[in-house]
User: Which sequence fits this backbone?
């Protein structure tokens, strides 16, 4: 893992991973760096692979009684049994690729006749499809960064999408969603979201910077997903949370990088 620069071979001391999806978020790149014995900023290969698989993450956290939506996992070879699936999830429901990011291939299904088309769309992004009951409530997100010396739990952001849900367009098009930091929720709920985010970070064995997403339903934060390589662009949530905390992005990044060198 080198770079040729002006006829000189540069060997890297460490890697700051900011690649979404494969190979930066699903453990492939981490496994490669492990073989080369090069330290990196994100979660381990195992943790990255686990958290990129939505259903596997839910199964892991369910053992620790983390509240979440009812769901069904389908493989591409399985028959789409609409009656059975909707008997578990109800309507409306979300259909998602089980291993994908940025809301690619995600559909909101309101009628039974829409389910098959939504599943086929999700299968274009992943070999497995996750179908979840829709959680009606307030969507929030919380960034967490931990090192051996310091734990940082960032301010909570409330997400108000102007689309039917927080889809790809709402995430990456300015003006399609209001991201309010700090979230306009009660102090008790705010603290609960921060505590759960920190706890989930530890339960999954995360490292570096992550973002945990929830839907608050009847004063209960319901786990939605975790992003182990969260967006770092000006339109992304995490940099806004860092700014709201009074820190600079460079402070967080430096903290994580310096932790790679004992």
Assistant:
């Amino acid at each position: 893992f080198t770079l040729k620069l002006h006829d000189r071979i540069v060997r890297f001391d460490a890697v700051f991973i900011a690649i979404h999806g494969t190979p930066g978020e699903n453990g492939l790149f981490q496994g490669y760096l492990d073989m080369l014995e090069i330290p990196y900023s994100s979660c381990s290969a195992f943790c990255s692979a686990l958290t990129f698989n939505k259903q596997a993450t839910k199964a892991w956290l369910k053992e620790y009684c983390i509240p979440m939506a009812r769901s069904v996992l389908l493989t591409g070879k399985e028959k789409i049994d609409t009656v059975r699936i909707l008997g578990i999830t109800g309507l409306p429901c979300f259909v998602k690729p089980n291993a994908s990011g940025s809301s690619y291939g995600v559909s909101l299904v309101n009628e039974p006749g829409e389910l098959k088309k939504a599943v086929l769309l999700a299968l274009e992004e992943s070999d497995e499809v996750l179908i979840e009951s829709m959680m009606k409530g307030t969507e929030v997100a919380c960034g967490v960064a931990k090192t051996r010396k310091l734990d940082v739990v960032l301010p909570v952001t409330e997400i108000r999408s102007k689309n039917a849900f927080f889809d790809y367009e709402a995430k990456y098009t300015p003006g399609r969603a209001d991201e309010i930091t700090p979230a306009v929720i009660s102090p008790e709920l705010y603290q609960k979201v921060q505590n759960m985010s920190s706890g989930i970070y530890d339960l999954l064995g995360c490292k570096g910077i992550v973002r945990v997403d929830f839907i608050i339903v009847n004063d209960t934060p319901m786990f939605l997903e975790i992003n182990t390589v969260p967006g770092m662009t000006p339109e992304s949530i995490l940099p806004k949370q860092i700014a709201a905390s009074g820190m600079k992005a460079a402070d967080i990044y430096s903290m994580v990088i310096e932790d790679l060198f004992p």
